[in-house]
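Journal club side-thread
Mid-discussion, someone asked how the predicted structure for our own chain would compare to the paper's figures. Pasting it here so we can look after the session.
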Amino acid sequence: MTVALLVATFALFGAGAAVDLGFGPRSVATRVVPYWAGLVGGGLVCALGAAAVEGTSGVIDLGTSLGVGESSLRLDPLAGMFLTLVGGLAFAISACLVAWSRPPGRIASRGSGAGYLLLLASVVVVVLANDAFSFLFGWEGLTGAFYVLSAVGRRDGSEIRASWVTLGLGKVSGAALLVGFLLLAGVSHSFTFASWAHVGGAPLEAAWWLLVVGFGAKVGLLPFQVWLPLGYPAAQGPIRAAMAGLAANVGFYGLWRFLGVLGRPPVALVVTVLVVGGITALVGIVFAAVQARLPRLVAYSSVENAGVILVGYGLALAGAATGRRELVAVGLLAASLQVLAHAVAKSVLFAGSAFFETGEGTDRLDELVGVGRRYRWSGTCFSLGCLTLAGLPPTIGFVSEWYVMESLMQEYRLHDLALRLGMAVAGALVALTAGVAALCFVRVIGLSVLRRTPGPPEGPGRTAGEGLLGRVGVATLGICCLAPAAVAPLVVRFLAAGLDPVVAAGSVEAARVSPWVLQPVYGSFSKFSPSWMYVTMPVAFAAVWLMALAASRGGLLRVRRVPAWRSASGGVAGPDRYSSFGYSNILRHVLGNVLGSSREVVVVGSADSERIHEPTVEVRTSVVEPAETYLYRPARAALLVGARLVGRLQSGRLEAYIAYMLFALLAVIAVVAAHA
């Protein structure tokens, strides 16, 4: 049954890609076929994953069919947990893509559908891989898919740069994994993951560092995060949702998988993951809060969520380093819940914003005023995604961030000072990140999605070309921002079964105090009922509203109209209107050292006929991406200088080449003699 489902899935993906490459977007039928294949294939993958979590596991032996020795695919509960998430997201995102790609002109050339299906197939291969070659085969396929999707619709030089940066950092990620795998295979004399469990000493420590760097580069760990705000916006429409909400999960899967394979990590790595994860979260949300373009804002928010997830993973590493299985369980549970929240929220944000941008012809926040009132389905689900990423109740984002913070409070159970300090620093950074995230997404919801536009009242709302399937897709993602929180104990039970290959399911199940009450694994600690929250919050809201209505003697129902102030208040139109730029401007000043912000005041003309003698002043601000400015640009300059020097050597004389070889030989002899 498992083999039949896999064969059918890959056959669907291959057939859809062949239609796209063979016929292109010349007709509606050929445009939507690849995404229909993704929709049906995603459903099959989801079914396969759910069956694996429930106990349908096994190994599919590929033999030597790939030409590199013995290879195999392994389906176990951990792979099933991620396949369930990936398949469900593929179903919803593909539904959005079917509706979005139907009108002519949105898909400009062939390659988008094939790249999308290559991405889905590569994710499935990575999750099922049971040996180094199969894993790297899928990983490189994913890197190629990212390049295709960010390059196929490019229109200008900035998007060309985005595709090359995406490819370059993808190759860095793959290179780190390749070297780490070779170290482990060189000691164990096998490419199978299970044989690496007995590797120890220096090779294991070096492999740990390399694998964390490799997977961290894919998900956006500092300083590799620069490709996300470039690569994601360069992709077309809801395909961004597949890149950010679906494919990024393989990086987290790799971290989970190799924690179960390699065992105890070095303490220095644990502290680094905790601190760098916290810094990544804060930097990501700070840069998201000051973005003027919606796709870049959502991309930087992906960086923030990756940092929060890695903090939870760092807690699990701390448990593995100290031999505390309960700490491993609480860390992985918190991180897995955050992966779920990030995946569904990021997918609905990119899918919904695709309909906004297509309908409005812009992606700038200050021009997308009131889109939630014009595009009711996308706007409503987009707002739910924003609330999830802000960590506000009653969404799954609130539950996951509560778990992360409660997990970090377990630091007193450790005796290693470095680990305790690392957890304390990470906790402070995550708390600060949560506050800035609320500011960031309140700005998006209040000033762009829900704000009333000046002029006549809005109509009954547009569909923005969503169609029935588009509505089904965004509604599915929007519901997934709420429903997992309402049934969080059932979600925890599912995650407990999925995490069984890494940590005993009983440890994670201890988080369920009762059928509807949760705690962070350890007993006698704080408890929380997300399900009960769905009862108490509406009751409390209704009670407060009724009390306010009674105290005002019905005044809340009466509309009082007064002249608007010229102070950026609601109802003021024109240059005095409060903008999303102005809302986040205070953050540019408070965190100017982090953002590297600069301000320029320019006089651009007179204001209006009423104040003809008063000049209009335009304030232009800019922020600096620190990793790109202070790391990658100097490194690029150094590489170019080195390349020019090498170019000169290539045009030298024969005597110079002989001298180079002589010096190189002497250096090798000296090194060998020193180690003899």
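Post-session note: Confidence is low (pLDDT under 50) at residues 455-464, 565-570.
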